[in-house]
Amino acid sequence: MAKDSAMQKMVDTSAVTATVTDEPFMTRLWDVIHTFYPLGFVAFGGPQAHIAILRDHLVIKHNWMGEDEFTELFAIGQGLPGPTSTQLVVSCATSRAGPIGGCVALFMWNLPGLIVCTVCGVLSTSVLDPNDPPFFLAGLAPAAIALLFKAAYGFSGKLDKLGATMALISCVVSVIIAGDETIDKGVCQWVYPLLLILGSLFTLVDSKRSNPIGTYKGASSGWDADNDLTFRRIGIPLWVGFAIFVFWALLLAACLIYRSNNDSFNTGGYLPLFECMYRVGSIIFGGGQVVLPMLYGEVVDTGWISKDTFYQGFALAQSLPGPLFNFSSFVGGAYLGVGGALVAYIGLFGPGVILIFAMMPFWATLRQTAWFKAVLVGLNSTAIGFIFAACILMWQSAVANAASAAAFCVAGSMALVYKFPAPACIFGGGVVGAILKLVELGQKPY
Question: Strands (DSSP E) along 15-66, which ranges?
C-alpha cells in the first residue's frame, strides 16, 4: 500500500514537472505567427463564425489549450466591451506568447480587412452592392456559418443539464432581441452583460449548496492545471493589469470631459474622431452589428460622411475577412484620409484590446480557485447560448437560397466528416457558391 502511494507520488511529481517545463519564447512566438498569418485572409462570416475558426485551430489542430480554457476566454470577451472575436484572438495568443504574441496576432488578424477598408474609404469608392455581392463572395458566408454550427455542437458536449438550461435561456433571449424588429437593438448593451452576470452568480450560489444542481470540476488537465505556467507566459503582473484598467478608465473620462467641454465638436477633426470611436468602443457589447446604429448618429448626423458612404462601407466590411470593427478604418478614411483611418481604427479597437490585456493576469491567477471556477461555469454556459443564437440568426442572413445552402452543406461536410481544416472548408464552400452564382443556379430567395 505504501509502495503504491510512493509510486503514485512520483508519477504526480513527474507530471507536474512536465507541465512546468516551457518552450523557448521564440518558439512560442513563431507558433503564433505560423497559426495566425493565414487566418486574416479566411475569417469570413462575422464574429461568431470567427469563434468556430479559432476553436478549430487553437483547440483541435494546434492543441494550444482545452475546451474549458478556450470557452473561458470567449466568455470573458463576451463580458467586456469591444470586438469579441478580436479579444479572443489577443487573449489566446497572449496566453501562448505574452503581450508581444497578442499584438502580433492582432496585427495579422486585422491586416487584410484593414488595408482594403482603408483604401476603399480613402478613395470613397462604391465597391460592393449590399444586395448583390460579387460572385466570388457568394459562398464564403454560408461556409463560415457551417463552421459555426460545428463549433456550437462541439461546445454543447461539455454542458450538464444546468449548463444546457442556462445556454437555452441566453440563446432564446438573444434570438428574440436580435430577431424582433420592434425591440431596440441598443438593449444589447446591458442585456448581454446582465445575462453573463446572472449566469455567473447562479452557478456561484449553486456551488455553495450541499447538493448542487450543476457539476463543478477543475480546469482541463494537461494545460496549466497544477502550476503558474500560463501566468508566466502571459507576463503581465497583477498590478500592471490593474494599471492598464485604470489607464482605460482615465482615457475614457478624458474623452467624455473633452466632449462635454467642446462646443465646436461637430466641426470635426482627428481628436473628435478618436473621442467618438474610443467612447463607442468602450460601451459597446453585442459585437459588430451593434456598431451600426451607434456610429450612424455619430458620423452621419454630424456630417462627417454621407449616409450612402456609411452603408457602402458597412457592406464592404461585412464582405471581408476579419472583424467587422474594421469598418472604423473605412469611416476614418472616407472622412480624413489615411490618418483618419488609423485614428478611427485605434479608437474603436483600443478599449477592447486594452481591457483584455488588463483581464488576462487576473484570469490566469483566479481560474484555479474554487469560487472563480464556479463563476466560469456560469459564464461558459451563458456564452455557449450566445453561439447557438448566432447559428440561428446568421443562418437566416447568410443562407438565403438553395445555392448558399449547398455551399453550407459542402463546407459542413468537409469539416465534420472529412476533417478538413477551417480555411479549406471555407474555400470549398466558397468555390461551390461562386460556381452556382456564375451559372445562376439556386439563386431564387427562399
Answer: none
